[in-house]
Amino acid sequence: MFTKVVTHADGDTATETSTAVHALRLLRTAVRRGYRVEATRTGGAIIERNVHDGVSIVPRTHTVTLEPVLPVRPISATVRECLSDIAAREAFRVDAAEAPFRHSVGRISAGLGGAPPAAAARLVARGLVVLGEPYRSTSNGYLPEVRTPVRVSLAARLAMHAQDHRTHTIAPAGYVRPDPRMTAGVQTPGGGLVYSRTSAAGCSCQSWSATGDGRDDARRLARRHRQQQTAEFIRALA
After folding, report:
1. What's the CA gap between 81 and 94, in Å, rounded?
2. 189: cis peptide before it, omega within 30°?
3. By percentage, how much of the chain surpasses pLDDT 70?
4. Tell me, what's the pLDDT at 52?
5. Taking a C-beta distance cutoff of 8 angstroms, is the pair 43, 68 a contact?
6. How many whole angstroms separate alpha carbon 2 and alpha carbon 109?
7. What share of the chain in percent tops pLDDT 90?
8. pLDDT mean over 67-75
């Protein structure tokens, strides 16, 4: 479940709850319509769109914030590996089994990977996975077994995506000595120093970097990168 907060262009707000299915539908619609969407590291998302009221030439912002009822805490490499196994194939939790397979009860099975009972219980308690409807199957094809389908939650997917795209900016260098090849024959005040306001931005994905005209511009470029990556991520969600 998600808490959905709508902030209208006039400042009025409304709060309601939203299922994961509705939240995913809302995110897909927002991306399809070209709205600005950004995943958060707590497993939520922020949707923004401009609204023109016909009075001011400056548009106002309509914002929808989705936040999981159980915010996602930082996800370790070990937990991420378990979630990757679960997301990669049809996973299930063993809820009942006969001897000699009773030791598997509580375990999440995902091919050769998965999670042992204690770790599986923590994944469920943290809201990182969601459970389906139990069904009957067999252990090794001959003993009865009860299984419950398991899949990675939308909140966990959004949180891991945001964790993969943590951006940073660097303060402008300030007064620097210019490259003599660029200033040959040019008089520079301040003892030959010039002021540089350029600010670099980068991302933990290590596939993007940019330079802005000042740190605010660098932050704007970084946020646009996060929004673009979130849009691509949502388009690819099954």
Report:
1. 20
2. no
3. 94
4. 85
5. yes
6. 27
7. 73
8. 95
Q: Please write the tens of the pLDDT for every residue from 14-65.
A: 999 999 999 999 999 999 999 999 999 999 999 999 998 777 788 889 999 9
Q: Name the residue with tokens 């990977």.
A: 113
Radius of gyration of the chain (CA): 25
Residues 71 and 127: their CA atoms lie apart, in Å, by 8
Cα torsion 25, 129, 2, 63: sign: negative
Please return the burial class of 127, using the count of CB atoms within 10 Å of its CB with bins 0-12, 13-18 and 19+: buried
- Please say whether the beta carbons of 10 and 26 come within 8 A: no
Round to whole Å and give the CA distance between 11 and 219.
24
Do residues 132 and 149 lie in contact, with contact meaning Cβ atoms separated by under 8 Å? yes
Please say if the pLDDT value at position 176 is more than 90.
Answer: no
When pLDDT is cut at 50, 70 and 90, the band that residue 188 belongs to is low
